[in-house]
């Protein structure tokens, strides 16, 4: 007989057995130690927890079973080991860092909140198809003036396509693997953009 624990991970509640909980907790603490900045640490850890929660949800499916060590090991394999993503300056010279896993990134269609004029539909389509969003903006304008239905199509897409809120969703939108390294890089880019925009 094993003890199970209820945990809240990325806003979702999971039942996890005691051994798996210890492994997951150790893993999250090890990741957290990799980040120097308090602001970065908080945002990156929130995104990593959200991604882990998504992976657990996919693995459990509808059966809502207890998470075991096997599922935690699979998640660690997908997201990556903390030591694989150490800061460059803390890595000893001449040592090579192992890159993470054979996990295939899947691309999903989201509205892009960082590259939008109205609802981010064209920015999301541009990221999904690797095309400049300006092409889609011109296309919607031509359809609007040519057939009169461009605005209706845009509004329908605005309603149907979800917005990319988290860093993990933004990575998924661009088709990049959702690993610790990519989440860390994306959060740092967001901080840099905010810093540039705050300069007067």
Structure description:
The protein has helices at 18-32, 38-60, 69-79, 121-129, 133-146, 150-160, 167-174, 180-198; strands at residues 4-9, 12-17. By secondary structure, it is mostly helical. It has 2 domains: 4-84 and 167-198, no CATH class; 121-160, no CATH class. A hairpin with a 2-residue loop joins β1 and β2 (12-17). α2 (38-60) crosses α3 (69-79) and α4 packs across α5 (133-146). The longest helix is centred in the N-terminal third of the chain and has 23 residues, at 38-60. It starts with a strand and ends with a helix.
List the helices and strands and how they pair.
Blueprint: E1 4-9, E2 12-17, H1 18-32, H2 38-60, H3 69-79, H4 121-129, H5 133-146, H6 150-160, H7 167-174, H8 180-198
Antiparallel strand pairs: 1-2
Helix pairs in contact: 1-3, 2-3, 2-8, 4-5, 5-6
